[in-house]
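Weekly puzzle thread! Below is a chain. First person to post its structure in token form gets bragging rights.
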Amino acid sequence: MQRLDQLVDRGKGTLSYVHHRILLPGSTPLRAEGLFRFEPVGPVDQLGSTPVFLASVGWIEDGDHQATTPSFGGMSRELAAVLTLITGRRIEAFREQPISMEGRPNRITYLPVEALPDRSLIGPIKPTLSIDDEIREFLGKARSLQRNEYVAISSAVDLHYGACLLFGRDLTAAYTLLVAGLETLAQCFYDAPTSWEEWDQAPRWEKFIRVNNLNDSQARALRYKLLDGAHIRLKAKFVDYASTRVEEQFFDETWRDCVPTISMPEGKVTGGQWGEAKKIRDFLPDTRDALRASLKKTYDARSGFVHQGKKATTLTQEAIGLIGRTSPSKPLPFALLRAVLGHLIRLEVRDKATSSDTPDVSYTFSHPAGT
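Winning reply:
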């Protein structure tokens, strides 16, 4: 609105027309005009969902801004958030970039960008993977854990799954779920220092004691309270656990980007191609030290979102983070943070399991489905 105010005040400028797609609940079309124009497209069938209706929402934009600043659906998401608030209905926007083809300016194609933070998630499952063997090994080991260990693993797996479902719709919330998964593991599997000398924040608090001239009794009481306060140690525990627990071979694990193949002008994803295989260490200079530094920034990003509503990450930051090496002064990209969580879940299950037995039952194709 500020950009439009400036255009109106100047009385001149380049206008452009932006269109995005949104999903509305129910089967009733929405048609409205004004600051935004809503046009019905048609009902959409979604498996496991209540009826939804696809609509096109358009608005006038500063042409110069539109030409130099791709939104990747950010503006439509913000509009959907406002619409959800004022209507009391769930309005869903898509992470996609509208583009028009040369010679056909009135034909808009929507380029999906929701998978950009971790395109390995949209790749096809390896045909050589033995699904039954993998499932039996993981579940067999998981059920042999102590109850508190099993609960932590189950919660971490669920948080990892939630992040994978959500990252294309709400990247910051998905990122926070990954941090929560690592925190869950750290609380169960990492023994924090029990003495003042072992705590990495002790020197900072010793300086506070000296600067404020606390007497011995006050200093002892403060040290006891700080060391006893579990919430004070959350960040340090998160960083220490993840950076020290990952195995050295983690940095040699392979990460591959699956680039979707898009049919034009329909804009439909018709397949995908695997990109060049890279190792985790290709993204992390100095490996473990870099991981530790980035994990500190990761937790800060999580805290900024939880306590102040700041964006933990953006699509642009994620794209940059996976092009070259991750800066220790930046939070881990979503894909690398997910790799850390997945590695540690499997590691804890492997190391803490006492057996890998599963029921001697098999459901084969010789048994008709549904019988």
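Puzzle host: Confirmed. Bonus trivia for everyone else. The mean pLDDT is 84.
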